[in-house]
Fold this protein.
Amino acid sequence: MPTAKQYCHDARQQELTPAGNIEAARLYGLAIKEDEGYLPAYAECSYVHLRAFQNNWPPKLRTNDSITEAANLADKAVALSNDPDSDWHLDFRGLWYRAMVSWNAGDFKRSFDEYDAARSRITDPVWKIKNTAELDADKAEALIYYGNPGAAMDLILGAEAAYPDYPWWLKWLAARAHYQLGNYTEAINEINSIDPAKKPNDVLLILAASEARRGNIDDAKTIMAEFSKNDPDWTVELSESYIYGDPDQKTHWIDGLRMAELREN
């Protein structure tokens, strides 16, 4: 029988698609069943449900059930990391994943505190640079939604400088920060520099909105049509359901999607 570690490894290999999300949730569930004290399974399964909430994906779509499940799993990971008798005492990942849940639920202050607390727990010298860079970059997404894309960009650039072998999703975050800052050409360049094999469908939203903002409406509509072909259920209404700390930053994003003719509902 596979170990909890193997189940988690297999879960991480799933594509960033609705079907991949379902399979990842199943595999993480098997990991937890195999070892109820295996912290990474709770933390990473939390993100599967958060991803469902963010993208309106199964297993529970963009509903309170999704974010509640994500929070419950993250809380279990935090509890294991706080337990001095656990093999995962003071592990940083529970707080990191809980921080992601917090800002998606609109509690930005709690999220920033959790990111900072998680960062203070990164001590392994072998992984410190990589883990710190990725955590900082992840916090940048929270800052974008909070309404401070400038601070977000600073974190992203710092992470890229500290860890040159950074993962592709930093470019995705940089593109969104550039868009919010009004740097539309830079946003497009960031997306176009991502390995095509790794690009999720929703990078097309940033491309379409950026082209629309540059006045290339026909190109924007073509890109948005491709996005909607791949994800016909995503709408302006769902995009508007994200919580922002700054209404002007939200309007800037939503208006760009409308300019590129994402369907309303």
